[in-house]
Each structure stands twice: as structure tokens, then as C-alpha cells.
Amino acid sequence: MTTSGRLIGVGTGPGDPELLTLKAVRAIESADVIAYFAKHGRGGNGKAIVEPLLKPGVTLLPLYYPVTTEIDKNDARYQNLITEFYDRSARSVAFHLDAGLTVAVLSEGDPLFYGSYMHLHIRLSQRYPTEVIPGISAMSGCWSLAGMPIVQGDDVLSVLPGTMTETELTRRLADTQAAVIMKVGRNLPKIRRALAAAGRLAEAVYVERGTMANAAMEKLADRADGDAPYFSLVLVPGWENSR
């Protein structure tokens, strides 16, 4: 260890500030620096969740993505831009850690589950004292909102990114009892087709902004096609013989 600075990855949960853990609240209130990811021109979802907890005078460190959906994720340009971004972000956080400060990096949901924080973690955790505070995941918040028992007994739950190919989505949906499909966005029409091909469309429930004040949900079969917001996912329950 080269410094007394401390890195904390903080899970901010699925959106409702009341679903922050007590440990997350303490970390946010005591940190010297609050780092958060956001698109340019926006405040960031993680920061919005914890806004009431930010102490006067705390240093805010926005980490602005250079690209989100403008370039295909498999394009070499995307890979280069995003790798450079995480390298640059790690250096920005390290600057404060080298000054002996505690830096809390906000991560929506859980930091190590599809979270941007993990890219900083692998770059910095071997050099600085590090703690990760888990958060309630978006999928947990959404199936709780829907009152949907998702798996039981020997059921298998598959977590699938909607960015997969339609063929692969269909294959995996046909080979699991329950599924959570994340990264919906502009992939909604493809997800619908894959669910239909796997014979699972009638069971699927679409949830957006789960646990937030403007949450909404409906059967996916009833929702019109079109882009979905960032905070959205599709639930396919298992537990066929519920009793």
C-alpha cells in the first residue's frame, strides 16, 4: 500500500433513496470525495439518489463517459475510447487517494454487478486500501415491485444482457426456468422477438424505473416497441408449479 487514502465502491441501489444500506449512507456522509459516472450534460443517476446525503464542502468528481450508445460496443473505436476513459478516470481518483483522501465511487445497483465501478476496482484495488459496499440490485428492486416470485427449488435464473444476438437470447431463454433481461434500451424489439421464439413472451413483464417515484410496469406483450429508458428490464418468472 502506498498511501493512507481509501477507495470505497458504494452501491446506491435501484433508485429509491430509502433502499440505500446504512453502511452506504455512512460511507457517503464521511467521504472526502464523491466520484460518480454520468453522460456529459447530466448529473448522473447515482448522484441523484444520494444528493440529500452530500455534506457541505464535499469534493465532487464527475466521470463523464466519452460514448454510450453512439458507437456499437463491438467497434474497435468504442473499445479504445472506453478503455482510455477508465484509465483516465482511475488516474483522477488516484490523484485524491494519493493525497490521503477517502474517495467514494457511486455505482447504481451493486458495484460489482454490471457496474462501471468495477473498471476502477481492477485498476486501483491492488494499490490502495479498498472496500466495496454492496447495493440492492435493480432486478431485486423490480421483482419486489412487481410482487413476482422469481425462482424456487431447483429453478435456474439466467441474467441476460439485451445486447446479445437475437439467436443467443432465444437459445438461452429456452434453456432456463427464469430470466432477467437487462440493458433493454433500443434492444426491446429484439428481446420481444427472442421471447416469442422461445415461447416465453406471455410470461414476460416489463419494468422501468423500478422503485423510483415514476416506476411503471406492464406485460411486455402489451407494451409498444420503441426505446426503453436506461432504468428498465424484463422479468421472466420461474416457479411454474407455484404452491
UniProtKB/TrEMBL annotation:
GO biological process terms held by the UniProt record: cobalamin biosynthetic process; methylation
NCBIfam families according to UniProt: cobI_cbiL, PRK05990.1
SUPFAM superfamilies reported for this sequence: Tetrapyrrole methylase (SSF53790)
InterPro entries: 4pyrrol_Mease, 4pyrrol_Methylase_sf, 4pyrrole_Mease_sub1, 4pyrrole_Mease_sub2, CobI/CbiL, CobI/CbiL/CobIJ_dom, Uropor_MeTrfase_CS
Name of this chain's protein: Precorrin-2 C(20)-methyltransferase
Gene Ontology molecular-function annotations: precorrin-2 C20-methyltransferase activity
All residue ranges annotated as the Tetrapyrrole methylase domain in the record: 6-218
Top-level lineage group: Bacteria
Pathway: Cofactor biosynthesis; adenosylcobalamin biosynthesis
Family designation: Belongs to the precorrin methyltransferase family.
